[in-house]
Amino acid sequence: MLTKSIPLTFAVVACAALMAAGSVMAQGQEPIRPIQAAKVTAPAKVELGKKLFFDPRLSKSGSISCNSCHNLSMGGSDNLKTSIGDKWQKGPINSPTVLNSSGNIAQFWDGRAKDLKEQAGGPIANPGEMAFTHELAVDMLRSIPQYVSEFKKVFGNDKLTIDEVTAAIAAFEETLVTPNSRFDKWLKGDHKALKSQELAGYKLFKASGCVGCHNGPNLGGNSYQKMGVVEAFKTTNTAEGRSAITGKDADRFNFKVPTLRNVELTYPYFHDGSANTLGEAVDTMGRLQLGRKFTDTENTEIVAFLKTLTGDQPKLTLPALPPSSDKTKRPHPFE
Hints:
By secondary structure, this protein is an all-alpha fold. The protein has helices at residues 8-28, 43-54, 66-69, 116-125, 134-142, 145-155, 162-173, 182-187, 196-207, 243-246, 278-290, 296-306, and strands at 224-226, 254-256.
């Protein structure tokens, strides 16, 4: 009755406006929030960190860099079940993405590093990864005049210790944020950003309880959860999760919940890399964590939603690394 007393076009516009407002209001109440672009406040520090991130001379072999396992051309991971370390050693665990890692509660699957700075020093000195020592890494950097000059410019002193090295790497990694995914656009009110199948997948993702662990801006990374709540998780991987850090048996197989940002790029999945595809991962999570067997259609819908979480990938100019000097010790990859 009301629409008959006003022009039809006005009624249509008003109705559309109300629907849009309702959509925005509903999206504002979602358990997931848009991720924000990184704000660079120390560009020189970030640039130094980028060089260190790509510099293989921080490894014993002179061939492994941070980017080897956290390849920024491949979603910040290496797409391997477990990473390859010094002398082709098989890594013990799947390499998590470095993208958006600054939003995590801690670093590594078991959370043993409180932040990116602490994490950055781990692989350098790990005999199964870069296989160097902090002392040798610092000696190498001190032997390169351009690095010495750059560290002094950034930190305002001549220290050049592992503390400065990891601080610079962390500063660079903090910029590796991927905003503007299609799902983020939908959260911000663009109701055309998602297709019907993708929206159905998101609704199922919520209704099934997936958001209990995968929530917030990072869709994860903010809690530890047991792998295998309803059904036991079977794996040959020896990683024990948080219990290796806390010493508590109750924390056995508790792992940091991974972010789902850019998840279509970061296969294979789980700490042991046992799921090769998103479809396999969704099926496993449904059964083990939720006690639910998704139908093929439901699985396809959830996977479609997950693919909308891919944001703008870091746009980088590869750094020109400073040349070694005559005093720089040459690597010994086969010793």
